[in-house]
Records
---
Amino acid sequence: MMARSGTAAAGAWLGLAPLCLFLCVFFVAPLVVNGTESLRGPDGSLGLAQYGRILGDGYYLLVIGQTLAFGVAMTLITALLGYPLGYAVARSQGWVKPFLIFAIVAPLLVNVVVRSFGWMVILGGSGALNAGLVALGLGKLDLIYNWTGVSIAMVHVLLPFMALSVASALETLDPRLEEAAGVLGASNLQVFRSITLPLSLEGLITGSILVFCLSIGSFVTVLLLGKTSTMVLPLLIYQQLTTASDWPFAAAMGVVLLVLVSLILWSQTFLRPRWMRA
């Protein structure tokens, strides 16, 4: 019996070997190389000089603050828009449900560059939206190369993650709980506040984490629709690599971004049980 269990364990490890090798080569090794590069100072010695540059310069701290604020703003906007959309998906029946799901995930089927250029055509000074406003006798709106245009384009692509997370949580909710509350005299608002929202909070938290992490790590959309007027950490890293050719400093900023995302994931894991109990 012991020999058989040992053989089974050896077979399991042998089956996991390709996966472990893949993770070591394409995940762990790049992190190690990036972390080592971030410790390289201007004179070639190892140290924390690059991190001192980041934490000691007000401009870089401002960029970090803008990155976090952008992630929070995207999370709040997608939560306000995605919850009703997820509720509609979870409560729809027949052909309406697959149609709504397809409409939600459609932005993810388009290449990010093509999608961003599409928004540039729509929001540009001579784009479709401003052309319609001029035709109606209204003034043009400045919707590109600023936070407004970037936010609109990012909500377009991040909304599916929030809506589908909420929908998956609502679909596990027993409708008899809502029906029982209604029979006992609770209004629709009371049912939503006391039953539906608390029991779907898991999906809302999951969607918020996904949206926040994706938004603070977004690059292409911010670059094309915001240029340098909407500076965030990924764009600053790109500039340090391509323009300044300062690889150690770019690596240090990459580590800072990784730490921010890791802290958010850790806080979500730590606080989720308390939120659910509350």
---
Amino acid sequence: MRISELIRSKSPFISLEFFPPKEQEAWPAFFDVVDKLKSLDPLFASVTYGAGGGTQDNTLEIATRIKRDHGLEPLTHLTSVGASSEKLENFLSSLQDAEIENVLALRGDPPRGCDNFDFGSQEFQHATDLISFIRKRFPDMCVGGAAYPEPHPESPSIQADLDMVGLKVREGAEFLVTQLFFDNRLYFDYVARLKAMGSDVPVIPGVLPIMSLKSAKFILSLCGAAIPGKFLSALEKAHEKGGDDAVYELGMDYAVRQAQELVDGGAPGVHLYTLNRAEACLEIGGKLKI
């Protein structure tokens, strides 16, 4: 079913994000996690996508099995970096054949090791180009886009970032999923600005439960998001006193409060980054009042 329709029929909700294990030996444990998290009755489960070959085949097979064998509505990530119209059309046709109706259209990051990668030389230079392509070639596909309450690292200004997201909506994005963040004021301000610009589509906030200080800093270094100073200081103090167990406890408490505040403030739902682990998301879902 189309996610845009699911959002209208059930809000607030929880949705989940998984990344395909590269090695198939890890798949049984992965699908065990999927089964455990089914108890949260997620609105959909997004599956990340390996650009330029990477885990593309895994994305398709895992999304297919999530829908067919586990009864969850998949949202497949699709990046355009390094892709041609032919490759994208083949992948989207495969999704249709598997009766997968939802795609999150992303530009993607430069290939690893390519410091001077030129997006201007690509057939698809922006996520907006990919969204437009999908809407024209696969009009029955429900397309979502990414949003950045903290501006994308490459954006010259907050307004430029908002303008780009507004263009995604005009090109056909029916909903938006945000990058992770920790200050809810950023989200609510962001949504208000988009609405003022005429981009009134559901904006689903992404929430990352912090399970250890090391993993949190690594993930944040990849996406450019920031931890508020007081929260970071509290995490570091907790680590000094009680190690990762204390960090986990503090991180879960923060994630539950953040998610509840988002839902209470009018967010359509919360999108939990699972890191392919069940325990944190089960704890948040069990405590969240929706």
---
Amino acid sequence: MAKQPTQSQRIDEILDRLAHLEKAMHGSSHTHDCKQPSDTTGMGMCRLPDVPERTFSSEMSPTRERLVRYFGKKWVSGTNLTYAFFDTPADSGDDPNVDLVRAGFKAWEELEIGISFEEVSDVNNAMVRIGFRSGDGAWSYVGRDIIDVAGRGERTMNFGWDLTTDPRGGGVDTPIHEIGHTLGFPHEHQNPFSGIVWDEDAVYRHFAGSPNFWSRATTFHNVLRKLDRDVVDGSSWDPDSIMHYAFAAGLIEEPTEYATGLNPEDGLSETDIEEVQKLYPPVDRRGFRKLRPLESEKLDLEPGDQVNFELSIERSDDYTLQTFGMSDVVMVLFEENPNEADHWQYIAGDDDSGSELNAKLQVRLKRDRRYLLRLRLYSQNDAGSTAVLMW
């Protein structure tokens, strides 16, 4: 019989397979102006805002920290991301621009990943809130920061120029890029393993001019800054990624083939598709485990694995759902839309990763409604040492 890999070996295998998706600094969650050919008049580049970086205890193990940093901004598979467009004068877009953003969502959804997208009419009821404020660039928060950081009712994504004039991808590449950030993907050109050597003075001069007018600090943060090697964990560079900037001639010294400019191919690259499908596999909605009050369920999971429970509610009441054990877990509760069968809406979530606490939700549940509880494990001290209980 073949020898089974140890938990440490399984963790390393998962990190080797998945970590090249993660190209973000600690606490990566940012907003920015987006992927455009650098010689396109009036169109900017991605400007990441300052978001507090996540810090960890010095006693936290390197392996645990790497897993938490990798999964920290990602969604659980099965999440339905609702989106809406502002209709206020300052933030509304015309029909052609709105339709291009809708096409961007469709491009990701057609990959049959474990994330779905639903347009709703009221921005106050949407997780992704999209504006078209002129002059504010094209930007999006990264991953779960759209609910963890962005204020209620505020924009989580913006398009600050006329997308119909964008020659890249027929105008849809910018929305695809921004939605990629919403899915949790950072910028590819900051991968420390890209081998890019910049003409830094030229880069500062270029981005100080029109249409960006960036300060040196903004240019460093968004272009020259290399991402943390421990977080990226040896990921290969994809210059054709939808998450990569285009760069004009004279900014890149090495690799020399890009000295005359770098323009990624239109649309999602093969690597983009492969990696988003690995991170968000489709969820089989049949045969979910039942979670009943006062009956604990053991989580026999490997790092990165997910389990889904259907809650068995016999009476309407206030309930607590909590994990137990030394682990890092994100736990998210969904309620079925009463008007649309098998369509699940986000209700609440908690992430205990990087702390000594356990994930915990306190919610009002109704007997005549259906609920799903999804848990993704980041790490745990010992295999099978984590459980979840509802009471």
